[in-house]
Amino acid sequence: MAQQLLMPKATAIWLVDNTALSFDQIAQFCKLHPLEVKAIADGEAAQGIKGLDPIATGQLSRDEIARAEANPNHKLKISEPKVRVPESKRRGPRYTPVSKRQDRPNAILWLVRNHPELKDAQISRLVGTTKSTIEQIRDRTHWNSTNLTPMDPVTLGLCSQIDLDMEVEKASKGRPLPTAAELGATLQPAQETEKLGFSYDRDDEKEKEIDADAVFAKLKSLKSTTPDDDDDDRY
């Protein structure tokens, strides 16, 4: 892919103001029409744009500008970049090595069971499979469904843990929180625990009342015995 010029109009403004290049040379280099370059020179176009130095950005050299100024027929050539930026590849279905393709059904079964919130398109991106295969494993109509064993796709090397976590997070957005029945909660409701606490307090109060009655009974018995002792002392 040919190197593209950054900000052609801003570069043209700088070349008009700082060089003796012809309008045709600047137009050819910046991919503009010569009349547009002339309008820039006359101040009729691109008035609010600040000039961009192509030498500072590494897209032109001073020697190249000098050669073009000396020869009106010379066409400016953009400098080769010092750093090559790789082109972004179009993202498509994930490629799965032949040696690991036999493990894909096991990974799909693991994802279907452990992450039911994932959509078919997400599972397809993770392990590189087709929608029909996912549906067959969901419905247990796959030709080898009896021999499938759920296996973590990260352990199998079909995807990374980061990719799996990202897809699960995307699928979980907007999903309602799980209920207590789904979580399998075994804790008793607060009302029952409050009643239990209240009953314990009542039992303690009953025990205290029983102890008080016993004490009063003992006191009465002591009072009933003291007069007899006094009578014996008189005789």
From TrEMBL:
Superkingdom per UniProt: Bacteria
InterPro entries listed in its UniProt record: TrcR
Name assigned to this protein: DUF1013 domain-containing protein
